[in-house]
Fold:
Amino acid sequence: MQEEKWHTLALDDCITSLDSSMEGIHPDEVTKRQKQFGFNKLDEAEKSSAFMRFISQYNDPLNYLLIGAALVALAIHPDAPGDAIFIFLVLTANAFFGFWQEGQAEQAMDSLKEMSISNCVVIRGDYENEIPTSELVPGDVVRLEQGLNVPADVRILWSQQCKIDESALTGESDTIEKKSDKLSVDALLADRRNMAYMGTTVSSGRGLGMVVSTGMKTELGKIARDIADAQTPKTPLELKLESLGRFLGFIALIVAVLLVSLQMIVEYGQPNPDLKQAALESFTVAIAIFVAIVPEGLPIILVITLSLGMRNMARHKAIIRRMKAVETLGSTTVICSDKTGTLTKNQMTVRRLSTLTQEYGFTGEGFKPSGSVVIDGDELNDEDLMKQHSDLNFRLTAACLSLCHNSNLVKSDGLWQAIGDPTDSACAVAGWKINGDVKKFSHRHPRQNEFFFDSNR
Structure:
């Protein structure tokens, strides 16, 4: 099966290559293709077991020093294990605390994944059915409807003003109108108007698409694979702790060698030298100094500080999976990021409206339909706004804002969201500020026909 060149094929060639039809594949083919291509989902990194996550909490140079010091102290003075027990208790408490914090983050991530499971409408054997997107296979025909996510990489079969927001994939905020015509082989990803890709959203219109790639073979899957293959660099905190651990270990070793050497030299000068006893005593003192040099409380202080950072980030709805990543965020000086949907919200707001007789302004921002109409800096109350409706230019323009679009405003979990093209959504919000609920207004003025944009008209 050809890869990455579906945009260059005519529809008939594409359908033939996938051994499918406009009515979709036969339901009996699904199981066979799922075995061949796998399920339509991105691979997840293999999770470490709870035991390994707990053991990883000890993976720190300072912890190594403390464990080494405790073991040596226990070997020399097995009858007085107090220091060793204290060190092990501190390290175990530190490990349990870090293990619990990271476990909470893992549970939150799992809950989000369960909430994000989505369905799609698929045509198989000329019958429509709603199935989980993970069950799609190459050759399936799926419906693309306004507000829905594209469930896999698909070749456009048919489009009726179908516009797709590809900002999540390409970073471009403008929606792309899709066509079914074949394209040249050198067309870039962002220019492939006959393709729709997993992870993008249908802003307006509708269409049909044939699945050509699923799971990790999609463009989104390729990005996920590159990210998974990338090596995770050590955090600044880990680098500093490694440096501190090496430095303390070096100092402790030098001090121990000097103490043992000096004690042996002094003992050697005595009339009846007992070198074995002198070595044992000096070694005991060296171990005591070694333990004193290593800050036993530092690991647990670090864990408590980082856990407070995790909780603070959680209050701002940011989940930190690795505790030491908190310090990385605090050490960041430059962030390289795409703009759309990251630094900006991919939301537009109508600020000014000009008719033949008057210029108006709007307060408020984003898709929240709260705000006022403004004339010459003065906000209009309901009575003043009603008076403006006597102006035919204003009344018709306001009606266009409320009616002449395919956008929809919905409130979910206390937040306003727009389904449709961002420009249409901005007009819908402006229409709401003038005429009230856009949906109710459209019910009072039902649409009789729709003339789609045509550059040749």
Remarks:
- The two ends are 40 Å apart (CA to CA).
- The CA atoms of residues 3 and 167 lie 23 Å apart.
- The chain has three domains: 6-37+136-224, 41-118+231-337, 347-444.
- The mean pLDDT is 81.
